[in-house]
Design goal:
Helices cover about 15% and strands about 0% of the residues. The chain has about 80 residues and is mostly helical. The protein has a domain at about 35-65. The radius of gyration is 17 Å and the shape is extended.
């Protein structure tokens, strides 16, 4: 939902410079990478199933903030294949 709300135009209504956003496609045989979760985000920004598997000390270290109300976003220009 957050990505759908991205500002894709400049102040004059023209597209922003640079490459256009695209949907990433993971190869079938690609190795999975793992990174630490970004600490301090609202709790509903984390995957609920993943968060439930954490131990209490890991939840405390994550410092998740209270859930942030996410409003329904109506895309003006929906992304293809999104």
């Amino acid at each position: 939902m957050i990505d759908l709300d991205a500002n894709r135009t400049n102040a004059f209504g023209k597209t922003r410079p640079g490459n256009t956003p695209r949907v990433r496609k993971r190869r079938v045989n690609a190795t999975k990478s793992s990174r630490r979760a970004v600490p301090g985000l609202p709790i509903n920004f984390y995957d609920a199933t993943w968060y439930a598997t954490l131990q209490n000390r890991d939840k405390v270290a994550l410092k998740a903030k209270p859930a942030l109300e996410l409003h329904t976003i109506i895309p003006v220009n929906p992304l293809p294949n999104a």
